[in-house]
Amino acid sequence: MQIHNIRKFFKMKPALNVSGIEKEADIKGQALHKALQSNSELSEKNLAKLAPVLINYGYNSLPSKAKVISIVNNKGGVGKTTTTAILGEAFARLGLRVLLIDLDSQGNLSHIFGIDAEVGQVADTMIDIKKTLAIQPINDYLSIVPSNLKLQEVESLLLTAASNQNRLRAALSASTIGQDYDFILIDCPPSLGLLTMNALNASNSCLITVHPEATAVVGLNSIFNVIEDVKLYGGNNLAVEGILFTMVEKNSVHDSYKEFVREEYSSFRIFESEIKKSVDVSKAQALAEQFYVYKGKSQVGIAYEDVAKEILS
Ligand SMILES: Nc1ncnc2c1ncn2[C@@H]1O[C@H](COP(=O)(O)OP(=O)(O)OP(=O)(O)O)[C@@H](O)[C@H]1O
Ligand SMILES: [Mg+2]
Questions:
Q1: Ligand 1 centre from 15 Cα, in Å?
Q2: Which residues form the AAA domain (predicted)?
Q3: What does the alpha-carbon distance between residue 58 and residue 32 come to, in Å, rounded to a whole number?
Q4: Do residues 77 and 118 share a domain?
Q5: pLDDT tens digit string along 26-57?
Q6: Residues 6+ apart with CB under 8 A from 102
Q7: How do residues 85-142 score in pLDDT, each as one tens digit?
Q8: Residues 6+ apart with CB under 8 A from 187
Q9: Tell me: the pLDDT tens digits for 166-209?
């Protein structure tokens, strides 16, 4: 057991109680606390005491590769891009390394962070695997591969290209990216076309954002049919991470649509945390500021942190 892996283990499991584990492992003087918070090491003796306790909490199933999650819904304007951005920030705030991929030619995710796709974008690697992914840093833990309208041209070119549904998967596998990040979040366009298929084929799981109103809920089944197909034919064991309600308002219409979704899709996880409608979101996006920089403590910020913890639990 190495201390950097132990630090990662605790970041991946924010619900773990460090004091409780010190007690269980009979570690004195808050040595684990200190090792997690600073660069101090743990003694061989403490490591030996800690090992069986951490294994009990799942240390051996610590992933060695990034978990790739697509944020998907063929309906437009249901909070996919916002969720990709703020959930990515929330993971990064836990100290996890996150890569965001803007897979929508609208480039909204790139705009939210004020990132210019002219210098390089995801389409470059999807059309030519020899080109390295154009990763740009947002903060110490968060990076992005941007997009702009060029992605639309590339989507047309891909129509007749070989392995056209697996270009993103190939792009992610062509380098050490899997080892460099803990999470890769892909913002999908509002369609179930070629780009979304590329995202799903490159993913371990998908998160479906649902705005609980008639136009957004009707037709939700089509996503689940596509997910089922990817599971059958995609070869990547795609899981459903869960359904996340977005832009929720306190009214009977939203309540009844949420109830409908909970009943209709009861076999999937519906995130306990839901994202309320808040003007903070549009304000931060208009200023192209990171959400938590714009508003450190807000209902939406806390809710996305809770979603991150639900995913990690
Ligand atoms: N929780 C929220 N509160 C208020 N406004 C929100 C919230 N989430 C998203 N929005 C706003 O709603 C609009 C649509 O959100 P977003 O762009 O995230 O949806 P989308 O599903 O990615 O849309 P598209 O399908 O066009 O890509 C944006 O203007 C965004 O600022
Ligand atoms: Mg979007």
A1: 29
A2: 66-237
A3: 17
A4: yes
A5: 999 899 999 998 878 889 999 999 999 999 99
A6: 108, 109, 110, 117, 121, 122, 144, 145, 146, 147, 187
A7: 999 999 999 999 999 999 999 999 999 999 999 999 999 999 999 999 999 999 999 9
A8: 71, 80, 81, 84, 85, 100, 101, 102, 103, 104, 108, 109
A9: 999 999 998 889 899 999 999 999 999 999 999 999 999 999 99
80 lines ligand 1 (CB under 6 A): yes
Which range marks the domain in which residue 23 is found?
Answer: 3-61
Residue nearest atom 9 in ligand 1 by C-alpha distance = 79
Looking at the 3D structure of the chain, how many domains does it have? 2
The structure tokens 């990076």 sit at: 143
Helix 150-158 vs helix 194-201: angle between axes, to the nearest 10 degrees?
Answer: 80
CA distance 141 to 93: 8
Same domain, 168 and 139: yes
Tell whether the model's pLDDT for residue 216 goes beyond 80: no
Residue 78 Cα: closest atom of ligand 1: 21
Structure confidence at residue 214 (pLDDT) = 80
277 lines ligand 1 (CB under 6 A): yes
Q: Which ligand is nearest to the CA of 72?
A: 1
pLDDT tens by residue, 197-214: 999 999 999 999 999 998
What integer pLDDT is reported at residue 242 of this predicted model? 97
- The residue among 46, 61, 76 that closes a domain is 61
